[in-house]
Amino acid sequence: xxxxxxxxxxxxxxxxxxxxxxxxxxxxxxxxxxxxxxxxxxxxxxxxxxxxxxxxxxxxxxxxxxxxxxxxxxxxxxxxxxxxxxxxxxxxxxxxxxxxxxxxxxxxxxxxxxxxxxxxxxxxxxxxxxxxxxxxxxxxxxxxxxxxxxxxxxxxxxxxxxxxxxxxxxxxxxxxxxxxxxxxxxxxxxxxxxxxxxxxxxxxxxxxxxxxxxxxxxxxxxxxxxxxxxxxxxxxxxxxxxxxxxxxxxxxxxxxxxxxxxxxxxxxxxxxxxxxxxxxxxxxxxxxxxxxxxxxxxxxxxxxxxxxxxxxxxxxxxxxxxxxxxxxxxxxxxxxxxxxxxxxxxxxxxxxxxxxxxxxxxxxxxxxxxxxxxxxxxxxxxxxxxxxxxxxxxxxxxxxxxxxxxxxxxxxxxxxxxxxxxxxxxxxxxxxxxxxxxxxxxxxxxxxxxxxxxxxxxxxxxxxxxxxxxxxxxxxxxxxxxxxxxxxxxxxxxxxxxxxxxxxxxxxxxxxxxxxxxxxxxxxxxxxxxxxxxxxxxxxxxxxxxxxxxxxxxxxxxxxxxxxxxxxxxxxxxxxxxxxxxxxxxxxxxxxxxx
Length: 595
What we know:
This protein is an alpha+beta fold. The chain has helices at 6-33, 58-74, 95-114, 117-131, 177-184, 200-207, 263-270, 308-311, 313-334, 378-395, 398-404, 415-454, 463-466, 483-488, 490-510, 521-531, 542-577, 585-594; strands at residues 82-86, 133-141, 145-151, 156-160, 166-176, 214-223, 242-251, 281-285, 290-294, 296-297, 304-305, 338-339, 369-370, 476-480.
C-alpha cells in the first residue's frame, strides 16, 4: 500500500489551487451581479465585505427559476426519475434481473428521500448555472446511508484524468477548535481526547476552553498509485482506490485575527504529531467521493464553461448600468438640482414636500428653481430594459421551464403544441443534459449503489449479471425517466405515433389490411412504454407474454373446434329431422348417391 507524504500532498494541492486562481476573477464578477454570497475564499479575512453590484436582481430571479426548473425537471422528489437496466443485453430482460434492479432502485430512492439529497441538489444546480461548475462531497452515513455536503465556489479545485473524470481534489475549509477535536479526535479510557494526531496549538486552545478559535484545514483526495483491486486489504481502511488526506493549513482567531504562528513554526510543530505523519486523518474510498457538475466541458480544461450566467454576463452588466441610469434620471426629475440668488445663502431653502424657501422681494426675477429640466424619456429606458430582460430569460431557458410546468404565456396554446415546442427548445439544452448525465446522474446513483452495497443494504450482484462483461464495463447502467428526459424523447414518440397513423391510413385507403403486419405489436408497445417511462413491473416479460399468447391461441383453437363440432351436430340434427319425398336436402343427397 502506498501513502503520500505531506510535501507531495502540498505540491499537488498547489497545482490545483493555481488553476483555480485563473477562474476566480470571472467567478467573482458573476457573483457580484447575480448572487454575491455564493462565492467564498477561505484565504481572505473573515467578515469581509460582500461585493454586490445588483440594483435590480432580474438575473438572480432568473437563476432561481432555472434552478427550480433543473431540479424539478431532472431530479424531482415527488416522482421516479431514474431506472436501472442490466448492461449485458443477453440477460437484460430476464425476469430475475429485472426484479433485482427494481428492488435496488426502490432502496436507493428511499435512501435519497430520507437523507439530504433533495436539499443539496438545488445548491449544486445553482452553482452550475452560475459558475459552470458545482461540487458536493458524498460520504457514507451510518443512519441515512449517504450524505451530501455542498461546497462553496472558491473553496475547492480539482484535476481530471484523460477521460474527463475528476480524479484529484482539494478543498480548504474552516473549523473551530471544538469541531476539529469532535470530528478527528478519539477519546481515551479516561474520557479525555487523545492528542497524538493534533497540533499543540489545538490542544492548548482546547484545554483553555478557547473552543471558537479558527482552524484552517485542507482536504486533498488523490488516487492510490499502487492500488490493485484483487490485492486490496479489506482490513486497512486506507488501502482503497482513492485516499483522502486532511491536515492543518494555518490557525486564526474568532475575532478574525490570525494567531501569528508562522509557517516555519507550523511545519516544525507538525513533527510533534506522531499519529499520521502530520495529517489529522487519512481515509480511503473505493469510489471518488466528490460529485463535480459542469455545464459544458471544453477540451483540455477541468472546470466547466458556458453556463447561463457566464453566457449572459455582458447583458446582465448592461442591464444594471441601464437600471442605474434609469434611477438617476428619476432622481433628477423628482429631486432636481436647484439654483437661486446669492442672498439665499443666509436663508433656509428646501425642496421637501411642505417645505418653505424664502426669497428677497426687492430682487427682480429672484426665484428658487431647478437648474435644468430633465427631459429623459423613462418609457424608452423601460423598453430597452425589457429587451435585455428577454435576453437574460432566454439565456436561463425561462420559457422552456415555464412550458414544462404548464405556465405558457399564451393561454390558447394547446398542451400538444407546448410539448412540441418544449421538445424543440430542449435540443438547445441537450449538451448540458448530456454533461449532467456524465457528472451528476450516473455518479449519484452509482455512488449510492456502491455505498449501500458496502453497508450491506444491497445484495451482491448475481453471477449471471456479471457474465460476458467486458473489461471496464459496469454491470448496471442508469436510464432517466424525469420530465426533461421524457421531453427529450418526445420527438421519438411523435415519430412512432405518426408512423402508426400512416400505416392505418394506407391500410384503409388501399383496403389491404396485410400492411398492418409490418408492425411488431409487442416490440412497438414495449418501446413506447420505455419512452414514456412506464414502470416495467406493469408489463409482462417476454416469456410471460409468450405463455399468455400461446394460451390465448390455444383457447381460440379450442373455441373454433367447439364451434365446428356444434355446426356438425346441428347439421346431423337437421338431417335426422328431415322428411323423405318432400324435396329436402336429404332427398338431394340420396339422389346424388344413387347415381
